[in-house]
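Researcher: Structure prediction, please.
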Amino acid sequence: MRSTRHNRCRLTPLGGAVALLLAAAVVGAPGLAGQSLLRSAQGGPPSIVGADMAVFEARDPRTDLPCLVDPVKPLLGFDLRFHAGYEIRVPLKELAGVENLLTIVFRVTPEKEGESPVYFQQRIHVPQIEEDAKGDAYLQGSFDLGEGRYKIDWLMRDRLERVCSQYWDAEAKLPERDSQLELTLAAGRIEASERESFPEEPPVERAEVDSPLDVKVMVNFAPQNALSAALRPVDTAALVSILRQFQREPRIHRFSVVAFNLQQQKVLYRQESAGNIDIPAIGKALESLQLGTVDMAALQEKHSETEFLSNLIRTELAIESPPDALVFAGPKAMLERNVPAEDLKTVGPIEYPVFYMNYNLNPQNNPWRDSIGNAVRILKGIEYTISRPKDLWNAVTEIVSKVVQSKSEKKSATAKPAVQIGL
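Model: Predicted structure follows.
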């Protein structure tokens, strides 16, 4: 059986109560703690403690260790896979005393006949808690599913072998209107939620085409809330998913990436014309991002953010070997002053299409065009609003189709007409 590390917890005030929060991170399911898959050393079914297996087989809810379990229904993330999970509440008085260890074990079984269950485990170290502690401890967990119906058998026990158990059913299903989406997890598959925010993307078999595409993507890594002092996991997951969706497109053979932050007025990472997008390198570069701080020199310069954006766009438009398309991506950037049209006209005519994928979870709250969108409009580009996973899939599909068409038309226009010789 693969060993699992202990996750320490921290006590945090939450609305007058006290919350016990897991110190684990998850991609695609923000705020939910990922679980570890249980396997035997040979990779087969794991060996489960007999008492735990008896609880599973009985399927009789227990509250020896008082707790409330609230299942989280499977939701489709921007990474095009379903994220399910649970939220737990335990009275702090039940955990009072010396340090404790909570062990969560659960299994997820596809309802499809012949499919085997998948087991998960997580050990959570609980610090010493005062005997008179008030409020509740809150725990969360998650796992990923392909389309299908599943049964979940769940238990948690402490060092005194007290058990809290719960059982529920879950269904991961695309609405009929979204049936064309190509999910990244096959039907009936069950996996642990990814703990790393920037794991390497699996290799893609590129299509053998006469004119492979070369695309540049410029991503403003910023939170939805411009006043936020941190880039939330939900925002990071969505922006990285945009890059991954382009990476998975077999007709694109070359990728250039510029990761920047408009608030910091800084280019964080640059990748020039490579066969794959280096996602882990982008994650490493983002570690230097410090939201909520502004350089003093920038504060003294009026409209410095606008100047940075203008210079950045002009620099990318002026390169000697232009791509087949330029794609901007990021949340709304509402600057006091937009980039002047005169700044962009100095570069000259753009001979390739320009797009903007505006990541906006609540477009009705801010329907106005932002500064990047305004610049793209000046460049006669097309803007897409990305609020749901379907929006992302549709936008990338349409962008690639338009780029293929643009490149084909350009090739036809430059082709020399055939010369007919009369006899």
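Model: The longest helix spans residues 389-414.
Researcher: Thanks, that helps.
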